[in-house]
Write a structure and sequence with these properties.
By secondary structure, the chain is α/β, with parallel strands linked by helices. It has one domain: Rossmann fold. It has a 5-stranded mixed sheet with strand order 2-1-3-4-5, with helices on both faces. The N and C termini lie far apart (61 Å). The chain contains 9 helices and 5 strands; from the N terminus they run H-E-H-E-H-E-H-E-H-H-H-H-E-H.
């Protein structure tokens, strides 16, 4: 029997994308606030490549965008996928709770982790300073952070990571303690609560040890 040609196999192999690094995709609700913060993490770019997108979308539409990106040929199942969004309470939208819960379920069913904040991402910043277990009005975040930082808080700050870095372990401890306050966790109604620390810990695992 004649020997089968291996040319087909060789062509297939040569056309495969060779990946030296894993991707770490973070799709954010905010266009600048969250992306500016996460881009500041000094991860080892020889190990992972951070891809952070500020989409200006919220909850379910944001997760749908993340799924679309995840299915892009540039990524594969060994990469890491996160969505970052808030539990926006909108008195004019009676479906806000439903959309939030649908987004959480959709992300889980598609292998995408969620770093959510109830009520806003700035809760994560506040937890660097103190433990808070009472609901905080979104309009109060600006004033509280301005007082704690000692200067006016800028929502789209490019330096906030460095300003808070030395207090980060306190924030992680406070965020974990906060989640333990709820006997039956329900992200949609647990105000305040956040899982941003889970994403932070995962990013920290890729920072070279000095």
């Amino acid at each position: 029997m004649p020997k089968k040609s291996s040319s087909r196999r060789t062509i297939d192999y040569s056309n495969r994308k060779v990946k030296n690094r894993n991707w770490f995709l973070i799709v954010c609700e905010g266009e600048k606030t969250e992306p500016n913060y996460f881009r500041s993490f000094p991860v080892d770019t020889k190990v992972i490549k951070l891809d952070i997108k500020g989409e200006g979308k919220n909850t379910k539409s944001l997760v749908e965008k993340a799924i679309e990106l995840k299915n892009d040929s540039e990524y594969d199942e060994s990469d890491r996928f996160w969505c970052v969004f808030d539990r926006d309470i909108n008195g004019k939208n009676s479906n806000d709770a439903q959309n939030f819960n649908a987004a959480m379920t959709l992300a889980k069913n598609n292998g995408i982790k969620v770093a959510y904040s109830n009520d806003a991402f700035e809760l994560w910043y506040l937890l660097h300073f103190h433990f808070y277990n009472n609901g905080i009005s979104r309009k109060d975040y600006q004033n509280m952070l301005t007082k704690l930082l000692g200067h006016e808080y800028q929502k789209n700050s490019e330096t906030i990571y460095e300003e808070l870095k030395n207090k980060q372990q306190d924030a992680i401890k406070h965020a974990k303690r906060l989640l333990l306050q709820y006997d039956r966790p329900n992200p949609e109604s647990d105000n305040p609560s956040t899982t941003v620390h889970l994403l932070v810990e995962e990013l920290n695992s890729f920072i070279p040890k000095s």
